[in-house]
Design brief:
This protein is α/β, with parallel strands linked by helices and 238 residues long. It folds into two domains: 4-69, Ribosomal Protein L25, Chain P, CATH 2.40.240; 77-237, SPOUT methyltransferase, trefoil knot domain (Alpha/beta knot). It has helices at 20-29, 88-100, 119-136, 150-156, 173-177, 199-207, 222-234, and strands at 4-6, 15-18, 37-41, 46-55, 60-69, 77-82, 104-109, 143-144, 148-149, 162-172, 186-191, 211-214.
Length: 238
């Protein structure tokens, strides 16, 4: 499953032109030539058996031999709002959430937030989603949304079957996730910044129907808390 490449736009013909980082890797790292066989995915949920038909300096043409739908997604849809940590911890978080099957990551703007992603940094994180998907075998990309203010995110997930926010003093997580949620539900989860959500932010969340859950006695970093919630939220599929 390592010889996988991402094709964009979605594949709709019998031939595909591959450019950019994917083409560079195939051409200059793998030294691909005509006849080289690869697996393509385009975010649609399908995989494509393909063979290199022609190469140029910075692009390749591939012929599609077979299309097959391969579903490696969770049975439930998880959207996760996170006040992102600083620096390289963002990339690490994105990679792990992709591996865990989270459907959407929403960067949150909160009162104590320490990192506000730019358009350029969001594009880098989306590239990390592609790389993680190639490695773990996902055929649908985790979406990274534009940043949202805390109150806007709360409003945006009002239709989710269950909504939880990590907060010390809430009900233990195991009580919420132990058989209380449908295996096919949409679930919304939230993690605040390093300094925690303010009392006002928690009060707003609770007033809008979110439930607070406690992740344990130890203080977790943002990325650890987010991964813990993602694991708990997706665990009901097993």
């Amino acid at each position: 499953m390592t010889d996988r490449y991402f094709a964009w736009p979605p594949i709709a013909a019998d031939t595909v032109r591959l450019t950019g980082p994917e083409a560079h890797h195939l051409l200059h790292v793998m030294r691909a030539r005509a006849g080289h066989e690869v697996t393509l995915f385009d975010g649609s949920g399908a995989e494509f058996d393909a063979v290199v038909a022609a190469t140029r300096r910075s692009e390749l043409t591939l012929e599609i031999r077979r299309r097959r739908v391969v579903d490696r997604e969770l049975s439930r849809t998880i959207t996760l709002g996170v006040a992102l940590p600083k620096g390289d911890r963002q990339k690490w978080l994105v990679e792990k959430l992709t591996e865990l099957g989270v459907a959407e990551l929403v960067p949150l703007a909160t009162q104590r937030g320490v990192a506000q992603p730019t358009d350029k940094s969001l594009e880098r994180l989306r590239r990390s989603v592609v790389e993680a998907s190639k490695q773990c075998g996902r055929n649908r990309l985790m979406q990274i949304a534009q940043p949202q203010a805390w109150n806007d995110w709360i409003a945006s997930v009002s239709d989710a079957v269950d909504r939880y926010v990590a907060h010390p003093g809430g009900v233990p997580a195991a009580e919420f996730f132990h058989g209380n949620t449908s295996r096919t539900a949409t679930i919304a989860l939230a993690v605040g910044p390093e300094g925690g959500l303010t009392d006002e932010e928690i009060e707003l969340a609770v007033a809008q129907g979110l439930q607070t859950i406690d992740l344990g006695q130890r203080i977790l970093r943002v990325e650890t808390a987010a991964i813990t919630l993602a694991v708990l939220g997706g665990n009901l599929e097993s």
